Amino acid sequence: MDIKELVGNGFRFKKNLGQNFIGDVNLLKAIVNDAGADEDDTVAEIGAGAGTLTRALAERVKKVVAFEVDEELSDALKKVTEEYPNAEVHFADVLKLKDDEIREWVTEPFKVIANLPYYVTTPMIMRFAESELNVSSMTLMMQKEVADRLTAKEDTENYGAITVALRAIADVEIKRTIDRKMFYPRPNVDSALVKIDFRRDKYGFSDYKIFKRTVKAAFAMRRKTLANNLVSAFGIKKNDAEKLIEKSGFPTNIRGETLSCEDIILLSDNLSELIKG
Ligand code: SAM
Fold this sequence. Notes:
Radius of gyration: 21 Å
CATH class of the largest domain: Alpha Beta
Number of helices: 12
Bound molecules: S-adenosylmethionine
Shape: elongated
Oligomer: single chain
């Protein structure tokens, strides 16, 4: 599909909205396949753009509810909704919508599928990951470097708080990498398609909030020991932090970024006990 033709002459692609569109029909079909979307699914698409992915989705799934912030794309998107009765478009900023506002348009459970503007990747993931909405998976196009962070192994440069926070509630997989030349206009980075399958009951947490604080503390100051980071984050005594680390089965001088997701869950469960007395 020719993107310039779809958006019409005179349309100015907005860099600040991450407007790098996909016209290649094979790639669009591959995204739908990788998302595991089929005729029983309701899909929320974030950032419809010229509607190319919206079309590919509408051909395959029961219902597509697409969101877009840029009203200048309304003519292009109207053509999609006229052609596909199972597709609808709402002009709204998804980061500003409350769960109940999303529920008014999208029937649960649903899948999120999107070629995201790069700058909203992390907030968008956390917006759905930590919401009460029944989202079964998110399949997202993102900057390759961010995909590497989400799927990083322990004790590597890319391994961080977001890796662990997500791994604790989901299985995360890079489905494919995509060359920058597949987008119009062409961005300065390569991309990857990542599937996040939510499994919120993967582990039982004593307290999710304390888990999140423990994750933040574990990666707070990379050169500090975990004990020192726990002292600063939770206001506990160094001696108590070391006892807690030992009780969890780790050496007292360990650094947070060497711990696996399971290790951090164990540590945070022991920490909850200590804090709550
Ligand atoms: N889905 C289209 C495609 O694959 O060609 C467009 C993808 S483009 C990378 C991202 C789109 O998201 C842009 O059209 C942009 O205007 C829109 N967008 C940016 N921020 C948004 C937000 N917070 N909520 C909804 N749409 C947004």
